[in-house]
C-alpha cells in the first residue's frame, strides 16, 4: 500500500504503517551515522542530553557526498543500519519513532521498537543520487567536526522508503524469506 506522511512521525501516524508499505515522507528528518550515534549516546550517559529533540523524529542513517553546484546535498544513499544497533534502544526510549537505513536489525532493536512503537524504513541502496533529488535543504546542526557524519537537518519532499519493520514487530525481510522458502 502507498502512504504519504508528513513529519513529525507521531504515534497516531505509526498506527497506519505496516511492513511492506511504500511510504513517501515529506518534512524534516535528521541524519546521523556511527560517529554521531556514539557521540549522542555518550553525551546522554553524561547527562548532557541530545543535540536536538528526538521525540517523534526520524533519523536517516546516511553520510552525504559533497553537494554539486546548485544542490543542497550530494549523493544521499543509506548506510547499513545494524552499525547503529548498539545505540538505537536508548534513542527509541527517548521518543525517536523512525529510522531509515538498509539491512537487517538486531533482535534487541526490534524488541525496543515494539516496546516504544517505532518503525524501520529501508531506502534503496545504490540510489543515492536519485534519493538526493528528494532533499530540498540540508543544514548541519551538530558535530560539524565529524564532516559527512555530522548531524544534519534535512527537509525532504516525497522521500521514498519501504516499511521493513512496523510498530507491531512484523519484519518484511523475515516474512519474505519464509514466503520464498515455501
What does this 3D model show about the protein?
The structure is a single chain. With 182 residues, the protein is an alpha/beta fold. 26% of the residues lie in helices and 27% in strands. It is built from six helices and seven strands. The chain has a five-stranded mixed beta barrel with strand order 2-3-4-5-7.
Strand content: 25-35%
Q: What composes the largest sheet?
A: 5 strands, mixed, barrel
Count of helical regions:
6
- The SSE string, one letter per element, is EHEHEHEHEHEEH
Mean pLDDT, to the nearest integer, reads 92
Question: Helix coverage percent of residues?
Answer: 25-40%
End-to-end Cα distance: 23 Å
The stretches of 5 or more residues where confidence is low (pLDDT under 50) are none
Could you say which overall geometry the principal axes of the C-alpha atoms support? globular
The gyration radius over C-alpha positions equals 15 Å
Strand order of the largest sheet: 2-3-4-5-7
Helix/strand/pairing class, anyone? alpha/beta
Number of strands: 7
Amino acid at each position: 500500500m502507498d502512504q504519504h506522511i508528513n513529519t513529525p512521525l507521531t504515534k497516531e501516524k505509526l498506527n497506519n504503517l505496516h511492513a511492506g508499505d511504500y511510504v513517501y515522507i515529506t518534512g524534516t528528518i535528521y541524519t546521523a551515522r556511527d560517529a554521531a550515534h556514539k557521540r549522542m549516546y555518550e553525551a546522554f550517559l553524561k547527562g548532557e542530553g541530545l543535540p536536538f529533540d528526538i521525540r517523534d523524529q526520524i533519523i536517516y542513517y546516511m553520510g552525504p557526498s559533497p553537494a554539486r553546484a546548485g544542490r543542497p546535498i550530494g549523493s544521499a544513499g543509506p548506510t547499513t543500519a545494524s552499525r547503529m544497533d548498539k545505540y538505537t534502544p536508548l534513542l527509541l526510549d527517548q521518543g525517536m519513532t523512525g529510522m531509515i537505513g538498509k539491512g537487517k536489525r538486531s533482535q534487541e532493536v526490534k524488541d525496543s521498537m515494539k516496546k516504544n512503537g517505532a518503525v524501520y524504513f529501508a531506502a534503496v541502496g545504490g540510489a543515492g543520487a536519485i534519493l538526493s533529488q528528494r532533499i530540498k535543504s540540508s543544514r548541519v546542526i551538530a558535530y560539524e567536526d565529524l564532516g559527512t557524519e555530522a548531524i544534519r537537518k534535512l527537509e525532504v519532499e516525497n522521500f521514498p522508503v519501504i516499511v521493513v519493520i512496523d510498530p507491531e514487530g512484523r519484519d518484511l525481510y523475515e516474512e519474505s524469506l519464509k514466503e520464498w522458502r515455501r
